[in-house]
Amino acid sequence: MKIGIDAGGTKTTGILYKQTQNVDEYTGKMGNPIVDFDLAVSNVMQVIETLLSKNRLSYSDISSISIGMAGAGTLLPELIATFKHKIQCRFTVDSDLKMSHIATFKNNDGNLFIAGTGSSLLSRQKGQFVQKGGWGHILGDEGSGYWLGKEILKAYIHYIDFSESPLDFMELVPTLKERFPDRSSIIQTVYSKPKTEVAKLATLYTSFEGNQFLQSLAIQAGRDIAKTLLSCNEDTDVVVAFEGSVIQKNAFVFNSFINEMKSAKKNVQVVSSRPANESVFYL
Q1: What is the set of domains in the chain, with CATH numbers?
Q2: With 0-12 CB in 10 A as exposed, 13-18 as middle and 19+ as buried, what is 198?
Q3: Is 241:68 a contact under the CB 8 Å cutoff?
């Protein structure tokens, strides 16, 4: 039997497998070691030990455990050393992004692109992993929900300061005034609240599908995603899996991405991503 762990910023999910069948599942608390190393490790161990005790198993019954943890990439030596003293069977620990890539492409080459609140690409070519993007909202994250929200807010404050608006941006102003009735509400959202609050503005696309200003941002986001993929894919055929609502739920972003890839004479195959837990099948 095997156990796959997906440990994120808010929860840790563990799945007990018999071959490839899901036997049991348990969800515990956060598992990001950058936020709190000892607590994240403790929460992962609590999930593993709960699965073992619930199913009356010991480590001798488990052939392998895979642990994907948010933020683990910079702390791997410490995590490996710590888990060695706690886990009494074979295990692998790495970032949740890498473990999701391994699960999605069955430990083979491919591209996993995250386009949610932030944006990041993990590409594996000829067995070597390369990460592009993932610089965060200040330095980068082009093509992400935060980037779209930030561009909308930049246009809005330009309108407030100079009474100027691009294309049909004025169509959005009443909705934005309702969400941000004064300067302080904008400043608090950008500088004090979680990044997801700015990224939520990307959902305006569902209410204003024909808005040319929003379409222009979506087209640019699609181009940015394509540019990132093209930077590390020389072959004609490009296999990619996407996670995150920006490209999965916005047709303008996706179509712009496809058009840009076609212009570069690339054949794109989009596959479904798989959760980090399933990496245990291929390690």
Answers
A1: 2-89 (3.30.420.40), 108-273 (3.30.420.40)
A2: buried
A3: no
- The pTM assigned to this predicted structure is 0.84
* Per-residue pLDDT in tens (0 to 9) along the chain, 283 residues: 999 999 988 899 999 999 999 999 999 999 999 989 999 999 999 999 999 999 999 999 999 999 999 889 889 999 999 999 999 999 999 999 999 999 999 999 999 998 888 888 999 999 999 999 877 777 877 888 899 999 999 999 999 999 999 999 999 999 999 999 999 999 999 999 988 899 999 999 889 989 999 999 999 999 999 999 999 999 999 999 998 888 888 889 999 999 999 999 999 999 999 999 999 999 9
How many Cα atoms occupy the beta-carbon half-sphere of 200 within 13 Å?
10
Tracing tokens 């992962």 back to the chain, one arrives at 44
Can you tell me the distance from the alpha carbon of 93 to that of 46, in angstroms, rounded to the nearest whole number?
A: 16
